[in-house]
């Protein structure tokens, strides 16, 4: 029996060595110290033995039982410690590692340039207002001296919402100029305002034309405003945006709602005037149309053209970053290509 007890002890310790977690430990406890364990059975069988053997066997068995119990306790402690330290070990932080970069968003190049344009005019004393993208025929055409069937309607390939309803028809505004009328209807001179916004044209797209694009309309109405004011304002604007060096060209142009009308072009920065795809091989890029507000337009909104005069301009917004950065295709602004957008 003493032999058997010894074997029992070594086997139990062997098995205890292989225990890795509290669940296994509990199984081990039941197997070796539980009611049905060999050790318990031996302790029970002692009663039937002669006194001398019982004493020896009992002492030995109890000693082994205590030894196993203390081994169990020890193992329990070890497991508990491991439970605490192992996650610390495996989740140890290396605080010297560089952080993961957070991808930062940025403003769309069109938004950036709009802000810049508005800032230049704000500094000159213009207020910034906005107007509707869906317009009446009346504001987009009629009130701007472009009645039904006027050939100037061909300048603006229109996206109609209602067709054939005269001045009550709705359309997507083909320019921001209808806001000239809305402004003058609700405000009396002096007026100095700019209107940033989208314009739409039903046109085939190419490198310099999109069917949706941004314009900034400008309007100044007061007593004694002349073409010199228009030139000074727009020259100054071009200098602020393109620097002192860039050439600025004023030429006669025609728009029914101004008289006289002008167009402003900037020397092409991509080819420095030699001619390229960006400037259509002319060396110049037209960035805005402008002119003195037509007396008939003033009269239509009850501003006396004998007392007041004004100038207006309409700026092609995307053309400006195109010129500045040598971007040779306006369609890039609306193609959502991150490789393009991330450069600004
Ligand atoms: N609205 C005109 C266009 O889109 C530009 C313009 C605005 C011309 C104001 C003169 C005065 O072409």
Describe it.
This protein is α+β, with helices and mostly antiparallel strands and 344 residues long. It folds into two domains: 2-91; 109-341, BirA Bifunctional Protein, domain 2, CATH 3.30.930. It is 40% helix and 19% strand. A seven-stranded mixed β-sheet has the order 1-5-6-10-9-8-7, sandwiched between helices. A hairpin with a 4-residue loop joins strand 7 and strand 8 (258-267). Helix 1 (2-18) runs parallel beside helix 4 and helix 2 (22-33) packs antiparallel against helix 4 (51-90). The longest helix has 40 residues, at 51-90. Phenylalanine binds at residues 175, 177, 255, 258, 261, 289-291, 312-314.
Summarize the structure.
Helices cover 40% and strands 19% of the residues.
Secondary-structure map:
Layout: H1 2-18, H2 22-33, H3 38-45, H4 51-90, H5 109-123, E1 127-128, E2 134-136, H6 137-140, E3 159-160, E4 170-172, H7 178-186, E5 191-200, E6 212-222, H8 227-242, E7 248-253, E8 258-267, E9 284-293, H9 295-300, E10 309-316, H10 319-325, H11 338-341
Parallel strand pairs: 1-5
Antiparallel strand pairs: 2-4, 3-4, 5-6, 6-10, 7-8, 8-9, 9-10
Helix pairs in contact: 1-4, 2-4
This protein binds phenylalanine.
Whole-number mean pLDDT: 91
Q: Helix coverage percent of residues?
A: 40-55%
- The CATH class designation of the largest domain is Alpha Beta
CATH H level, superfamily name of the largest domain:
Bira Bifunctional Protein, Domain 2
Q: What pattern of helices and strands is seen along the backbone?
A: HHHHHEEHEEHEEHEEEHEHH
The fold-level CATH name of the largest domain is: BirA Bifunctional Protein, domain 2
State which percent range the strand residues make up: 15-25%
Low-confidence stretches: none
Strand ordering within the main sheet: 1-5-6-10-9-8-7
**Radius of gyration (Å):** 44 Å
Gross morphology: rod-shaped
Q: What's the story with the biggest beta sheet? A: 7 strands, mixed
